[in-house]
Amino acid sequence: MNGLEGFLYPNEIETQWSILIVIYPFITGLVAGAFIVSSLYHVFGIQNLKAFSRFSLLTALSFLLVAPLPLQVHLGRPERAFEIFFTPNFRSAMAGFGYIWLSYLILVAFETWLVFRPDIIRLAKANSGLRGTIYRALALGVLDHSEEEFKRDEKIVKALALIGIPWASLLHGYVGFIFGGVKANPWWSSSLMPVIFLLSAVVSGIALLIVLYVVARTLTRKPLEHEAIGALAKWLLGFMILDLAIEGLELLNMAYEGEESWEAISVLITQKIAFSYLGIQIGLGSLIPLVILGAVALMGNRARTQLSFLAASLVLVGVFAMRWNVVIGGQLFSKSLLGFKSYVPPLLGQEGLLVAAGLLMLPLVIFAVLSSQLSPWTEEQPVAQPEEERARYRERVYAMGIGSNPRR
Amino acid sequence: MSVSRREFLKTAAKYTAGLAALVSAPKWLPFGRRDSSIAQAAPAAAGSNYDWDQHTWGFVVDTTACIGCGKCAVACKTENNVPMEPEYNRTWVERYVVAQDGQVFADSPNGGIDGFDTEQANAKYRNLQIRDSFFVPKLCNQCENAPCVQVCPVGATYRTKDGVVLIDRDRCIGCRYCIQACPYGARFLDPRMRVADKCTWCYHRITKGLNPACVEACPVGARVFGDMRDSNSRVRKLLAEKRVNVLKPALGTKPQVFYIGLQEGVR
């Protein structure tokens, strides 16, 4: 067989978890990170992240909706997927998926609905026919909403944004535990796994927002809010330092203790996955962006945004590589510790690259559809702010651009 | 937006009809009913006078007796309708070759079903200074503290009262978590049913007073099966007379397959 080296238990010849299982933690990580940025504004009132407040919620929701798909496609019996809801075995970390994802989806959907309620009401009033019916249904038939009631909505949003933080952490933390709790695999088994997964999730979510924001604003010919991007880049830097510290600690501990598995693991990371681990995850995806972001934090000019965009893009690639290195890397060495194998995802087929790419594109499509109706831009937010405040904010935003009026 | 009674009843009738069709779907549709006894050579003894409270099954493997003929692996695949390809094994035989300098090599060509007497299997050892070599049959250890049972998200795999870990093929969703969690590589995904599968100590045979197929097939008695509660069983006698060991004891899985002559270096 191709790529087999040394000795593997015969049943290890087949790679059990494919690229689809790499994509799932990548997606839930993006969700957790994006949501936490949104909560930084809604709960902690960090004003310079205001530009991302609605944008990050829509992003989180778009990715959250797609999250179960890679899992479903991967199952041997996808038609039985609902058993996770009906007969879960709560001793299994994986059983957490059903209820945690579902409850978190309800939370995010509810919070998004509340935040975008003014938009929905405006659209319901402005449209007739089928579209009007859809928006009226979305508005739950309530078309006159007073200032007071909007204020109350904001309070609920705050509460949801607060509860959502531990909930998002749970959504992605449990994935870390799925791997961290497998004593059979020394590359996975670690109490730090949930922490590492969560930190890299926040990192990837922040990076995604920077990249997506710049791309979306550029495509729709809107000005970029450099201050907001700069602020987010600082958060990215902070979380990256934390993430790298913990990941480094994990590796250092393994190397220092030098248990039986260390010999096989050091061959894994220095040879079998050297490119994706040392090259991409650590080098291109962590150290280089770290240096760039560090420089950006000390600099003060326009080039900041471009460099932040570059760093964020590298970080996204790096976090994807991290998921790959954990999921696939953990299956490339035998549990006998005497052999190795390789894994190259096929192009076609149920668990092929095309399906994987499609699943990664799908949230962007959903986001595009959602944001075409519900504007993610804070300066286009219709109501619930005193008019002078809104006008001032709008002026500031227009002043950054070349007079482009974003109103449709 | 109000809905007339007629519209409501029409919609409800449509949904009910659809649901009924789904639930009564024939076997050949993807979501149809499934026969859970596929691939069993004989129906289980359930319903007869077998009482699982009366037995605690155990297994002993004598690595000093095994000659690596591979007949056990063949018998198992035949008895349990396991695909003949090398990546699907309920049981297999490993060969260990220890060099003079202490380095350990292992192999298991095709799980051992063709034996080890082929040129392809032996060419790599021709120029090695060999200190020792021996065979180690492997199978599911039916762990008392089975990690596979712990991680199954839907409870499809479970441990019976008589000490065997089984898989409910009707329940398994094919997520493969149990395969990842097994430290011994005992599990695999059945490519036809697309659910997890593994050695069951031929549960359909042992509940009828027979031995597992591999135990029957072994010409040298390297595999021993029996009731741990029966003081006259060979299994109990061997445990009393020989020094035994289990695989990867530090993991806390409490395997119920005991190895005689388990050499250091065996994985």
Q: Spell the H/E element sequence of chain A.
A: EHHHHHHHHHHHHHEHH
> Distance between the terminal alpha carbons of chain B, to the nearest Å?
68 Å
| Strand count of chain A | 2
Residues in helices of chain B, as a percent range: 10-25%
Model regions low in confidence, pLDDT < 50 over at least 5 residues of chain A: none
What's the shape of chain B? globular
Summarize the largest interface: chains and residue counts: A-B, 47 and 49 residues
Largest sheet of chain A: 2 strands, antiparallel
> What class, by secondary structure content of chain A?
mainly alpha
Give the strand content of chain A: under 5%
Number of strand segments of chain B? 11
Oligomeric form: heterodimer
Mean pLDDT of chain A: 90
- Could you give the distance between the termini of chain A? 60 Å
Question: What is the count of helical runs of chain A?
Answer: 15
Q: Tell me, rounded to a whole number, the average pLDDT of chain B.
A: 89
Q: Write down the Rg of chain A.
A: 23 Å
Helix content of chain A: 55-70%
As laid out across the biggest beta sheet of chain B, the strand order is: 9-1-11-10
Could you state the order of secondary-structure elements of chain B as H and E? HEHEEHEHEEHEEHHEHEE
Label the structural class of chain B: alpha+beta
Task: Characterize the structure shown.
The complex is a heterodimer of chains A (408) and B (267). Chain A is mainly alpha-helical and 408 residues long. Chain A has helices at residues 19-42, 53-66, 68-74, 83-86, 96-115, 117-126, 129-138, 147-180, 193-219, 226-257, 262-272, 274-298, 303-327, 353-373, 387-400; strands at residues 5-6, 339-340. In chain A, strands 1-2 form a two-stranded antiparallel ribbon. Chain B has a four-stranded mixed β-sheet, covered by helices on one side. A three-stranded antiparallel β-sheet of chain B has the order 3-2-4, with no helix packed on it. In chain B, strand 7 (188-189) and strand 8 form a beta hairpin. Mean pLDDT of chain B is 89; it is low at 30-44. The interface between A and B is large, with 47 and 49 residues.
